[in-house]
Amino acid sequence: MAEALLEIEELTKRFGGVIASDSISLCVPKGELHAIIGPNGAGKTTLIGQLAGEIAADAGRIRFEGRDVTALPTDRRSQLGLARSFQITSLFLDFTVLDNVALAVQAHAGHSFRFWRDARSESELRTPARAALARVGLAGRADVVVSNLSHGEHRQLEIAMALATKPRMLLLDEPMAGMGPDESARMVKTLRELKRELTILLIEHDMEAVFALADRITVLVYGRIIASGTPEAIRANAEVRQAYLGEQEQRHG
Amino acid sequence: MIASLTPRNVVVAALLLLLAAVPIYAFVTGNAFLVTLFTRVIILGIAASSLNLILGYGGMVSFGHAVYLGIGGYAVGILAQEGVTSGFVQWPVALFVSALFALLVGALSLRTRGVYFIMITLAFAQLLYYFGVGLDRYGADDGLTIRRRSQFDHLINLSDRTQFYYLCLALLLATIYLIWRVVNSRFGMVIQGARSNDRRMRAIGFPTFRYRLTAFVIAGAICGVAGALLANHTGFISPATMHWTRSGDLIVMVVLGGMASSFGPLIGAVALLSLEEALPILIRAMAFPVFGDAAVGMAEYWQIVLGPLFLLVVLFARGGIDGLLAGARRG
Q: Do B202 and A73 touch (CB under 8 A)?
């Protein structure tokens, strides 16, 4: 197995009586696209929150590139190269598209105690920002104020923001949520390109996309991992079929 | 600050010309009252501009900003009382003590959000207000008369009304320019980003607290200098300067004039203080033909008119007066 980029050991989180993460252990090697699926309320977003540092785990450890990051705050983890996107769009709505991405670039271009020069004229920030926009197909929308974008464009911008932080690993929380079929197809294409150079942890409900993209899949139910393996193995797993996939097939049928 | 002929730029240019011409008008007509009034407008314009940095751009609703006017004023007053009249000492002290107090307040309050933030800034301001009330050596409740204005050797004579006026105007323009540069810099992008979406700022790798705290300290320091000016202007400092209603006035100026706009706080200061002067006179003039002598008493309730006016601006002009002017360009 390739070198592990992200290692999760016995991660546990309780909210009152509800166990959101039930001693989750997971290892994502460098270069892998690892998908996490599971029914609503399985604790997928809570897991991302703990990995990104927004939610403190009750127990367990998180290692990134061999370094224990369990106690690090969100901004420090981002500096180490762990970038997340949000399920519910979280952008700077009153800024332009380019300003959004340029801020993400700026976060990783040294400290920001620079008080005088016009940040919007710094090519050091604008050029990489435009490049990140081009990668997600938003190059033509750079000067639009974000609140005027469509939902699908918001989702694309979410990815561009994460990319602009020069990450080593992406944590994507339902990047296709609420997208139409065309937009989803474009997002799958974007993710397939990103997969070549980045390690990705993907949470997604769109099964077609998950099985098309993932190298490995982990199934989470009530905060517990019930299966983890290749897409073929997951598809064939009886417990998974019963707990999750089966339900869907029945509903669709 | 792009030089083109929009309604907003015309109004700002006219306002600046007007401010520059006030002492000339006063000299020609012999009416010194306008210089006194507009010196006050300009000083409070500086204070409101400093509040705009954190309130308008940074989204930090400090409800205790007038406390720095008090700190700056007391720095001048207390030092003068103790025999230190040099402005070269008084003003840096006003600036540094204000910055230090802002550092303390900010370090505690910026860990909270919303109403809690407002309440903590208010609590610190009131704390200092009551401290001032208890300062028996320096006039306590009654305040402290400053017999000698800050001395700057032969550089400038603050006792000269006109010289003092133009110094205040220059400092106002310097403040507006400084804040304009700062909010468009990398630092400014960070505090504006934190206003817009602090959670995302942290997710993309910004430790936002230290940047917001720095903005809080800069705003406090600038307002401290405004306090030193105000004390020199009135020749007097009392705890009333720090009262929470004074902080409320500063917020009204910023919101009325236009949050996150370079000249908005100045426009707000001009509008609020002009209305304070003009409304009683207007009410008296309009009510006199109908109510006769009772109109004089009615004029005391000028705030009944001011309140709804402020409400209208807040409800229908999100960007304040400056936002209305900017909107007029598009419409």
A: yes
Strand-strand pairing, A33-37 and A18-29: unpaired
Mean pLDDT, residues A216-242 = 92
Counting residues of chain B whose pLDDT is more than 90, the rounded percentage is 81
CATH number of A252's domain: 3.40.50.300
How far, in Å, CA of B251 to CA of B314, rounded?
12
pLDDT at A155 over 80: yes
- How is residue B75 written in tokens? 């720095």
Look at residue A119 and give its three-state secondary structure: helix
- CB neighbours (10 Å) of residue A230? 12
Q: What is the tens place of the pLDDT at every residue in B116-154?
A: 999 999 999 999 999 999 999 999 999 999 999 999 998
**Do A124 and A233 lie in a common domain?**
no
Please tell me the pTM assigned to this model: 0.92
Asked whether residue A10 falls in the same domain as residue A108, the answer is: no
HSE, CB side, 13 Å, CA atoms: give it for residue A186. Answer: 13
- Cα separation, A103 vs B194, in Å, equals 11
A45, A112, A123: best to mutate for the B interface, most B CBs within 10 A:
A112
- Among A125, A142, A165, where does a domain finish? A165
Last residue of a domain, one of A165, A194, A219: A165
* A31 falls within a domain: yes
Using CA coordinates, name the residue in chain A closest to B211. Answer: A113
Q: Do residue A106 and residue A143 come from a single domain?
A: yes
Shared domain check, A77 and A188: yes
Asked if B206 reaches chain A (Cβ–Cβ under 8 Å), the answer is yes
Cross-chain residue pair A104–B201, CB shorter than 8 Å: no
Q: Does A230 lie in the same domain as A197?
A: yes
CB contact under 8 A, A165 and B188: no
pLDDT value of position B43: 98
Closest Cβ–Cβ partner in A90, A112, A116 for B199: A90
pLDDT value at position B5? 79
Domain range enclosing A194 = 1-81+167-253
For an interface test with A, which of B175, B204, B261 has the most A Cβ atoms less than 10 Å from its Cβ? Answer: B204
Q: What ipTM was assigned to the predicted interfaces of this complex?
A: 0.90
So what's the pLDDT on residue B197?
96
